[in-house]
Amino acid sequence: MLTSEVKKLLVQIVGQENYKDSNEMRLVYSYDATPTFQSLPDAVISPRNKEEIQKILQLCNEQQIPIVPRGSGTNLCAGTCPTQGGIVLLFTHMDKILEIDEENLTATVQPGVITLDLINAVEERGLFYPPDPSSMKISTIGGNINENSGGLRGLKYGVTRDYVLGLEAVLPNGNIIRTGGKLAKDVAGYDLTRLFVGSEGTLGVVTEVLLKLVPMPETKSTMLVLYEDIDAAARSVSKIISNRIIPTTLEFLDKPTLEVVEDFAKIGLPTHANAVLLIEQDGPPEIVSRDMEKIAMVCREEQALSVEMAATEEEADALRTARRSALSALARMKPTTILEDATVPRSKISEMVRAINEIAAKYDLNICTFGHAGDGNLHPTCLTDARNEEEMERVEHAFAEIFDKAIALGGTITGEHGVGEMKSPYLEWKLGKEGVEAMKAIKQAFDPNNIMNPGKMFAKDSRKRVLV
Amino acid sequence: MLTSEVKKLLVQIVGQENYKDSNEMRLVYSYDATPTFQSLPDAVISPRNKEEIQKILQLCNEQQIPIVPRGSGTNLCAGTCPTQGGIVLLFTHMDKILEIDEENLTATVQPGVITLDLINAVEERGLFYPPDPSSMKISTIGGNINENSGGLRGLKYGVTRDYVLGLEAVLPNGNIIRTGGKLAKDVAGYDLTRLFVGSEGTLGVVTEVLLKLVPMPETKSTMLVLYEDIDAAARSVSKIISNRIIPTTLEFLDKPTLEVVEDFAKIGLPTHANAVLLIEQDGPPEIVSRDMEKIAMVCREEQALSVEMAATEEEADALRTARRSALSALARMKPTTILEDATVPRSKISEMVRAINEIAAKYDLNICTFGHAGDGNLHPTCLTDARNEEEMERVEHAFAEIFDKAIALGGTITGEHGVGEMKSPYLEWKLGKEGVEAMKAIKQAFDPNNIMNPGKMFAKDSRKRVLV
């Protein structure tokens, strides 16, 4: 609970209309897109500029009040759930695209800008901002930065991190730092820019972002490939890339996901196949068609049931939208949907998909798998019911085994969703005690009072490895 | 000076043959490629594996002995000059390419691998490692990582940082951490990988590196464009990119550099022009020729004196080699060559080149300018004589003004050479007190006894801004 004195000071900083602590508002911001995590904040505030944020952080640091910076709360790791109470900080007033610089190919934006709004704004100028998380219609750039969001175009274009040239951030001690610049090269000191990207709001509050843009690809082409055999689909993925072709997108959906997505999107997806690859390539027209031909050949060599090009951009867009709606579609099936993010080297996808299916069978669970196959970034998704304690225990055991397997294959516990509170017990599995210790030293250096999004990334205790 | 007890322990760790403290060896490792910096180390040691490095760091941490990890010492920021004595650590025994993984497009290497050896090894498999610092014939991957080296292909392909997927490092406390993996996406905790890239050996010793490879471009084409007017050359650079073409390489040389390089390389470079752009594009043949045509058109619109394509790969290679030899060529002219690294947004290149020439005139100095124009990364190079104290003072004032101007234009004090000891007094100009404080907090967290490359990056006192 905030004291009346603190409340008064916060209202002074942001104005009465930007300070909310009604039960309704606290309830609305008590959770994010992550199932089974909920906790009431003490207040929800919407500062108007970095100076207000600076004052808020100074006050919170002095009073040791937790602060949770939050974009649209679409993350899936409980990264913005205020699990230790305190203040949820919104960027509703800081949502402007400040500049699109066509000469230096950069955009300067405030953290509250919606990802798709930025993408559309730069595309109008013939420019391209590639990171496209599935939540891009509502996610914010600030949220994308905090989580280092990926997306469907990550295989060819990389993730959010690869497009952040610089940023402005307020640190817990109230210092404002500016990193980077409109510069392709800058080695003046440690890479604070990339340290902040993916730091999940645990080191400070990002107040301005300088993004790199690239020229808009001339054309784009989309292909749907069906397989009888999941392994053959996975082998195709590896084979396309070892044939020196890097498609923009190389998505995998298994049969259960396909059925649910078709039921939701009703675009005539072929639900008789056991696995589907959605493949896109962009670039100059002659190269796109050449690449797509080679890809089709590889897929046919791997006994694809069918290889079909989208005939129109509408058809291609319907396929992409269907893929992006996988989580929403799956979420309709059962009260609780737990979407995970285990990631492996792409040469291990086939092995990982097989392991997920075996683990699902072992624990008698309904797990669908889809994801960014080209990145080795799979989203095994469990349809369950949080009220069923016995089943939830099996779910937890199953995901622990999935993480364990991913790490054993040279992978990681999270490819693009972040650690947050949800995966914090598993961080040590990936990094070892020494790695976690090094990260905690950074956290301690920036935020000694642990006010920035406390409880995230670092667990109180690490989870013991399940014996498999 | 090391005590005889410490010496005994070090010899026990690495073996007698890998511990050297003769005057000759100490002299050889008392300097790097940076003029005017020299200081004797107490010993030079060559560990054989990470376990030995772990023991060395534990010992040095306990005894508070400085350690300077050193590749080939080609850096230009006094980054590997042992200015506080202690131990120079070499990677002569850790110079293996451990794996080239064609399915996941990665290379795993030890830090002592020579950059060009790696480039050649992966090209034999039809793969491509783009970072190509001018020193690549002798520089090591470990050195490239510590300095986040750039190169001629940075415009299109980025710098070393963009190709490091993971690494193994020994921390000053003896902990060994492993970051990243063969993964396009990995958000398990803070980005320690990129924190280490460019950290100049101040946070720990990198002992293994996992690098990203890309498919080898099919073809490459090279063009030389001459200008009467330097401004027109600079304008061409901006205009090419705002025409949505990103060439692989877009190099600028001014007339004085051109004359010296031609005198050195004797390949018939046209020394009558006031500025030259060396432009390369790679990719599929049809795209390369289309891009080169558009580039030629832009250059002609900007009143280029001539636009000439290299007729053969030998001719193109001669041009590239000539450009890479700029430093060597200039270094023959005068006893001391100070090559700087001021970097600006590419839209400001013309203004920056003009400012450099004005500053050179003001201080009556011989400054040539060349560099990676597409990146805004210029190398103003002063031909001088360190024994002439009065002139050296003018040199220092001139470079301070150049840094000041670069920052005023939204640039940085170093694009690809690093801060080291040489530019440490200027770091605060770029980052502000708050930025330097944040970086020092990281250094303190990792290396509380300041054993790792002490005196680098952070100056005892920051330099006062010269009033301009």
Radius of gyration of chain A: 22 Å
Largest sheet of chain A: 7 strands, antiparallel
- Number of individual domains of chain A: 4
Strand sequence of the main sheet of chain A, in spatial order? 15-12-14-13-17-18-16
Give the helices and strands, then pairings:
The structure is a homodimer of 468-residue chains.
Chain A: H1 4-14, E1 19-20, H2 23-28, E2 43-45, H3 50-63, E3 67-70, E4 87-90, E5 97-101, E6 106-109, H4 115-123, E7 127-128, H5 141-147, H6 154-157, E8 164-170, E9 176-180, H7 192-196, E10 205-212, E11 214-215, E12 219-227, H8 230-242, E13 249-254, H9 255-265, E14 275-283, H10 285-301, E15 304-309, H11 313-324, H12 326-331, E16 336-339, H13 349-362, E17 367-372, E18 377-384, H14 389-408, H15 427-446
Parallel strand pairs in A: 2-4, 3-4
Antiparallel strand pairs in A: 1-2, 5-6, 6-10, 7-11, 8-9, 8-10, 12-14, 12-15, 13-14, 13-17, 16-18, 17-18
Helix pairs in contact in A: 1-3, 8-10, 8-13, 9-11, 13-14
Description:
The structure is a homodimer of 468-residue chains. Chain A has 15 helices and 18 strands. Chain A has 468 residues and is α+β, with helices and mostly antiparallel strands. The first copy, chain A, folds into 4 domains: 4-90, Uridine Diphospho-n-acetylenolpyruvylglucosamine Reductase, domain 2 (2-Layer Sandwich), CATH 3.30.43; 97-215, Uridine Diphospho-n-acetylenolpyruvylglucosamine Reductase, domain 3, CATH 3.30.465.10; 219-327, Alpha-Beta Plaits (2-Layer Sandwich); 334-417, Alpha-Beta Plaits. A 7-stranded antiparallel beta sheet of chain A has the order 15-12-14-13-17-18-16, sandwiched between helices. In chain A, helix 9 crosses helix 11. The first copy, chain A, is globular and about 70 Å long. Chain A starts with a helix and ends in a 22-residue tail after the last helix.
